Amino acid sequence: MAIQGMELFAVAVVILLFIMVLKQFGNTEALSLDDRTDSDLELSMVRHQPEGLEHLQAQTKFTRKELQSLYRGFKNECPNGLVDEETFKSIYSQFFPQGDATTYAHFLFNAFDMDRNGSIRFEDFVIGLSVLLRGSVTEKLRWAFNLYDINKDGCITREEMLAIMKSIFDMMGRYTYPCVKDDAAFEHVEKFFQKMDRNRDGVVTIDEFIETCQKDENIMSSMQLFENVI
């Protein structure tokens, strides 16, 4: 995969990699959220039960059939209704066996684990997926900003952007074509951070992030690549 600007790749990879997770969870066989087997009922005391189908349909841009399909796949992979971080890392490692996806998966997991309880619920999964696949450009960029804002303080520092970038290089940067230099992550961060930090205060706010991305034709194109894939 050629990298024609790591800033573009870093934003687009958020969507692309989560579609890979969708394929891992995805299942075309529909199953109502209300369908329960006897074993499901036996585990009801320890199993997380998702919100009602109608409620999730109202919160997302998925159809009833799509939600049923996603739930079936999610339930098959995670019978207790929750995804912990180790499971998430295991999923990503399958797609990058020659790299180390651990750190990137950690950052991405934290972006979905909004209530910081150490697990991702089905609701978290489909709401985030709805934004990435069907959301507006601004919604997608807000989600990407949340990924870069590692400590969730409302701004992105050079160190945070570099940490995300390094995690992408660890995962697959060594296997791109042409090969990238060891210091390429730092160089790309410096270039893009200077472009984003418009008032030169050393941090990037969400407004600066969105404004800069919206003015970049390549990033705008990347935001449209993965719409309506399910």
TrEMBL record:
Compartments (UniProt record): Cell membrane
Gene3D superfamilies: EF-hand
GO cellular component terms given for this protein: nucleus; voltage-gated potassium channel complex
Annotated signal peptide: 1-30
Domain EF-hand: 100-135, 136-171, 184-219
GO biological process: regulation of potassium ion transmembrane transport
Main location: membrane
Keyword terms, alphabetized: Calcium, Cell membrane, Ion channel, Ion transport, Membrane, Metal-binding, Potassium, Potassium channel, Potassium transport, Repeat, Signal, Transport, Voltage-gated channel
Pfam families: EF-hand_7, EF-hand_8
GO molecular function, one term: DNA-binding transcription repressor activity, RNA polymerase II-specific
Keyword Magnesium set for record: no
Family annotation (SUPFAM superfamilies): EF-hand
Keyword Repressor found: no
PANTHER family from the UniProt entry: CALCIUM BINDING PROTEINS, CALSENILIN
Family statement: Belongs to the recoverin family.
Name recorded for this polypeptide: Kv channel interacting protein 3b, calsenilin
Gene source species: Cyprinus carpio carpio
